[in-house]
Structure formats: structure tokens, C-alpha cells
Amino acid sequence: MVSEARSSLATKGWARFEVDAGLARWAEAAKAAALARMAEPAHRAEWLQCEGTWFVGVDTLPNDARGAVQGSGPLTGPGYDLARALYGELPLHAGQVSVTWPGYPRPRKDEDEAAFGYRLRRDAAHVDGLLPVGPSRARMLKERHAYILGLPLTEADPEASPLTVWEGSHEVMRAAFTEALAGIAPEDWGEVDLTDCYKAARRAVFETCPRVALPARPGEATLVHRLALHGVAPWQEGADAPPEGRMIAYFRPEFPGVDASWLKAP
What we know:
Layout: H1 2-12, E1 14-17, H2 21-38, H3 41-47, E2 48-49, E3 54-55, H4 78-87, E4 96-100, H5 113-122, E5 130-133, E6 138-141, E7 147-152, E8 163-166, H6 169-180, H7 195-208, E9 211-213, E10 221-225, E11 230-232, E12 246-251, H8 261-264
Antiparallel strand pairs: 1-10, 2-3, 3-4, 4-12, 5-6, 7-10, 7-12, 8-9, 8-11
Helix pairs in contact: 6-7
């Protein structure tokens, strides 16, 4: 199982793990903690977007550096085990809690027609850590994540806005960024405008890499390569989920330094 998951992550850019009893218990506790935090007015005001169909939930989960929340022990499960085996014992940030409801997507606040069209047709596909900077919203590498670990917190139909990944896109992106950053010291990568490179690589991915939907249930886990192009699918008519919505907790710990690990690590 571990070797198959490691191979899938390397070749496809993602790996999925079956239900683990310990992780299912963690998910139950994390759901309760997330719902309590989501009910706070400040969090709702900041993160309830797309006309109430998406709670973005960055830094919403009140976990410690080992992933523990009130009522649970540290984060566990084979997905997290593989991530630690590949990238080391990186401290976990407060997890994102991404929640969608029927009708997703609606336009996000200040989202123009082109951006909303991209969200609707391409799942708002992106590579994490390339943040829009300045008035021109130039894409720059501001967060050097090691991996993306998705942990569902509610049961939902497969058509209820699942995570989507473009298989093999991590190697397309790696090649493009390697060329764009050639000759530049890794500590200076965060000041390079990668917009044109990024857009061209995305176009290549859409033309050559299959889009795969990765629905999952509590107790399962999805590990995604940090360079993989990924997004959130529109909610399909008739898809069912509890009133809490389709909830997924995400962890994206960052590499501790500014060396070349972001491009060179597995």
C-alpha cells in the first residue's frame, strides 16, 4: 500500500488512502472544532464567499503543530505517515477548512467575469503558494509548501464539489518553473514574476493532462504533490451532503528554509 501510494504521488501527482479508524476519530473531533470556529462572526465575515456557497476557511481549524484538536490526539493515518516519510516532521499550521454547499460556484467578491469563468470551467485550478502580488496581481512564489494533505470531515456525494487534480501536472509545472528560475538563487525566487510562465504551463496542462476528481469520505485521505494543478469542481445538481456542507480540512506545511527543495524534492 505504501509503495503504491508513493508511486502514485510520484507519477500522477496524487495518492488516495482508504479509511483509517484513527483518522476517522480525528475527523469527527476536527469537524466539531471546525463548526465551532466557523460559527464565529469574524471567521464568517472573512471566509464565507461565493454568495454563501463556499467557506474558504484558511487557518480555521484550531489544531496544534501535531494536528491535535480538542477531543483528539495528534493527526494520524497512512497519508500523513507518507508525507512525513517523504518530507520530514514539519510542524502543522492551523488547517484550512474548505466547505462548499449546493450552488457552488457563485462569483466571489470582486471576481470579474473572466475569473469567474475560469472558476466555473476550470475549477479555479491553481498551484498553491503562487500568490497574486500588487496591483497587477503578479504571481510570485511566497509560500513554499511541501505537500497538500486533504482530510474530509463530512460524508458527501462524489458530485458534491470534489477536489480535482490534473494528473502529471506536477512535472509540467516543475519543468516550467525550473526553466524560469534557472540561474536565480533559491533565496530570491520569491521576488520573481512567474505570471507568464505559470499561465503558459497551465495551458499545457489543460491540453495534455487528464483531470481527475478525487471525492473522499471521513477517515480517508488524499495527498497531493505541491506542484500539481488542482481545484474544486462545481456542485452538480442533485448531489447530496449534510447541512454542514462538504467539509475538507487541508494541511500545507512549508519547507523550513529557502533552498531548492520546493523544486527538487520528491
